[in-house]
Amino acid sequence: MPPHIPPTPPESRADSPEDGAEPRRRGSRKSAGGITLRDVAQLAGVAPITASRALNTPSAVSPKVLQKVRDAVERTGYVPNLLAGGLASNKSRLVAVVVPTVIGPVFQEIVHTLTETLAAAGYQVMLGQSGYENSREDALLEAIIGRRPDGVVLTGIMRSAEARKRLLASGIPVVETWDLTPTPIDMLVGFSHENIGREVARYLHAAGRKVVAVVGGRDERSRRRMDSFAQESAALGMAAGADVAMHHVTAPTTLGQGRKGLADLLERQPGIDAIFCSSDLLALGVMIEAQSRGIRIPEQLAVVGFGDLEFSRDLQPQLTTVRIDGTGIGQRAARFIIDRAAGIEVAERIVDVGFSIIRRESA
Amino acid sequence: MPPHIPPTPPESRADSPEDGAEPRRRGSRKSAGGITLRDVAQLAGVAPITASRALNTPSAVSPKVLQKVRDAVERTGYVPNLLAGGLASNKSRLVAVVVPTVIGPVFQEIVHTLTETLAAAGYQVMLGQSGYENSREDALLEAIIGRRPDGVVLTGIMRSAEARKRLLASGIPVVETWDLTPTPIDMLVGFSHENIGREVARYLHAAGRKVVAVVGGRDERSRRRMDSFAQESAALGMAAGADVAMHHVTAPTTLGQGRKGLADLLERQPGIDAIFCSSDLLALGVMIEAQSRGIRIPEQLAVVGFGDLEFSRDLQPQLTTVRIDGTGIGQRAARFIIDRAAGIEVAERIVDVGFSIIRRESA
DNA sequence: TTGAAAGCGCTAACAA
DNA sequence: TTGTTAGCGCTTTCAA
């Protein structure tokens, strides 16, 4: 249905469908029929650019004009076409957010925060899923670059060097998150997976644990946590340190895998008294399996998770886990992009948000 | 940094920054500096429109031209500007997906499926969060309509009638999901919350339960499930049917609320032998609380969840719950929008995907 | 099958 | 403070 502008004769629209009298010029074409800035300007009795200023930089326009334009917008129900605006201004106000998958609790907090924070600043989030396995990363990249976003937030990995190079070449501001790499593409908000593994090992050692093991996802970051955990465990002289069972499950991790993980582990290495899991869901699985076998936590078995999911504090026993401040990461990342768009260059492009071990009952 | 086109003299670019000799015409402006279709066309020795056809409708050009254009794309690393394309063609290949929040497991599956399915068809997902509480729905709507998406998928609620009206007026295809309303804005893929409440009551009645209660979120849909559960319970003569404890927690629901819910319930109504929870997370909380009180499930207390989260089958005991096919909903919704964009009109705009009660150990 | 012209709806640049 | 002009990069329309 065509839009309805209350009391204004659309007589002077150059290509208004009404003037079928004149022969159509070669190459001319009809508009989609929506209300445009031009309609608003006409109704307000100003030039289009003035209407544009009234909407985008109200301070640059007289109060009188501002009022007239706002009235016209109100009456017509005009909604600016951001595609056109983006094309003309070379600012899309769109930010691409890439996660391996939106399923699973891991990246929820960051996606939520980014969407909310950016929306408050007038940006929209375009969601991309890279998948954990090798997939068409190049197709995703093409789709992203094609939209000319004002920023890209990468959570999880951009695997191919080719993809990283193209992203860099595109000139789009990039924020990598969830890791600390020495050579980021552009900006970085993350934390050290190695440090986490090390600190958890020390924590368990200080708690007097002797035989440690891990139940971990097989994605690269999980593996790095696990490797450094194993290394530090060995260095501290914890038994089977060099022999820590790497129990690789596919990402994203599940409770069921945690149950199975503990079962397998106990079969191979009955003396285990501490387990570091690569997610809280795995940890919950370990706890349930232990419970069903009559193994007492933490007396006989200490369990440490990763992620500090919202439910972890309410488990029985409460889960000791590693907390990552996803909200903080999201806010920093958003700030990076908003600042860059505003022409503000920050001195430090790498932020380490760290982590904390939340000490509860399970370890 | 300016883009680098290997061996092609950019002599004839109208506004090339190089020709600073001529005085700048009034109103002329510099391009963003990226590689455009025009550059590709020039390199391939064809007109821009021909290059455009080679990329969008390869069958409409000769194999020779196709090859030349593809070579040129390859050499330049050209990525089409979808903002410009969208403006010209009035097709944005963007779909807005609105959920109350991306936090919490409820809408993950549908967001995941939509993102993936639509990406495969060449569409990108723009994410919007409406929030559970009354919020700036109009601002969100403005942001959505401003992008001129080829479709909007609404999950959860569009509360204000004003918002619904504007969406309708915008002419954008709309798919509402997660509910069955008699008068959808446009298209609808959902299920009946009332039926779920009723069927769960019957299920528990058939299982010989006598005193039922609910632990439920306070969002509108949860309440509808709970209300019809209460009604049917009463009709079937289950004790306290008319007196079912409505235990309203704020959405999204949490495990902790489930624990507290059971605790409160037992205080008020000790004889309860069955509980219907409005989410699996609440159900898990109820189970943990029961466990910590030595209440045996299902012998003393039957528990039914909602959502069939991935972990529910691995709990101890396995959770009986209501399954909603989020993937199916996502696929149908995507299909609706893709078809509409292709001009295919479906006869039936309302799809009821139903639900199923997954019978496991807890009830 | 290819191309010339025009224009999608908006804003940058310049001028008054 | 307001307006004129041109053009963002692409695709539609029409013609050859």
TrEMBL record, chains A, B:
SMART domains linked to this entry: HTH_LACI
Compositionally biased spans, kind Basic and acidic residues: 12-25
Region (Disordered): 1-34
Alphabetically ordered keywords of this record: DNA-binding, Transcription, Transcription regulation
Pfam families found in the cross-reference section: LacI (PF00356), Peripla_BP_3 (PF13377)
Compositionally biased tracts (Pro residues): 1-10
Superkingdom per UniProt: Bacteria
Domain HTH lacI-type: 35-89
Keyword Transcription regulation: yes
GO molecular function, one term: DNA binding
PANTHER family from the UniProt entry: LACI-RELATED TRANSCRIPTIONAL REPRESSOR, TRANSCRIPTIONAL REGULATOR
Name this polypeptide is given: LacI family DNA-binding transcriptional regulator
